[in-house]
Amino acid sequence: MRRLNLALAGLAATLVGTAGATLGAGAGSGATNASPIYGVTIPDGYRGWELVAPALEADPLNELRAVVANSVAIEAYRAGTLPFPDGTVLVKLAWKRAQSPEFEPASVPGASTTVQVMLKDSKKYAATGGWGFGRFVDGKPVDEAQHQTCFACHEARVQGHDYVFTRFAP
């Protein structure tokens, strides 16, 4: 188990970097970069957060993905707490999948595609299961139409898991 945790930690460092962590959600990112509808911003220091799980998205997106979380979320995952507590922040990073130049069978992150954020605030986002959503390309929020699809997709598929797709990797 310890080896697996160390391997996942290594994968997290490879995928998301090693910047310092912060517990805030959206602090310092500025209101001009807030997502439409929800007002969610990219949290400072998220690239230093702990890995929840990596993922591979097949065609047509062909992406490598990693979900990282703040300490509130990590504690909830470890304890099996559902619903997630207010203050939970999940960030999904996605890159086009590229072939490793050093090792042909391996995939490595290519161009960044999106950063997606989920912020739990059961009062502020009561109409969307307690979650606010943000989707960003090149650090800027995407249009309102794309944000309108966020909750509908989560509600249709993972309502029984507090609207969260990603499970904690063992």
Structural commentary:
This protein is an alpha+beta fold and 170 residues long. It has a single domain (2-161), classed as Chalcone isomerase (3-Layer(bba) Sandwich). Helix content is 23%, strand content 29%. It contains three helices and six strands. The protein has helices at 2-16, 71-79, 144-158, and strands spanning 50-57, 63-69, 89-99, 107-120, 131-137, 140-141. Strands 1-2-3-4-5-6 form a six-stranded antiparallel beta sheet, sandwiched between helices. Strand 3 and strand 4 form a beta hairpin. The radius of gyration is 16 Å and the shape is globular.
Give a nutshell description of this structure.
Residues 43-166 form the Cytochrome P460 domain. The protein is of the alpha+beta class.
Whole-number tally of structural domains: 1
Overall CATH class: Alpha Beta
Low-confidence segments: 1-29
Distance between the termini: 8 Å
Q: Summarize the helix and strand pattern as letters.
A: HEEHEEEEH
CATH architecture: 3-Layer(bba) Sandwich
Estimate the mean pLDDT confidence: 86
- From the spread of the alpha carbons, the general shape counts as globular
**Neighbour order of strands in the largest sheet:** 1-2-3-4-5-6
Biggest sheet layout = 6 strands, antiparallel
DSSP strand content: 25-35%
What is the CATH topology classification name? Chalcone isomerase
Q: Determine the number of helices (DSSP H or I, runs of at least 4 residues).
A: 3
CATH superfamily: Cytochrome P460
> What percentage of residues falls in helices of 4 or more residues?
10-25%
Total number of strands: 6
Structural class: alpha+beta
Rg over C-alpha atoms, rounded to the nearest angstrom: 16 Å
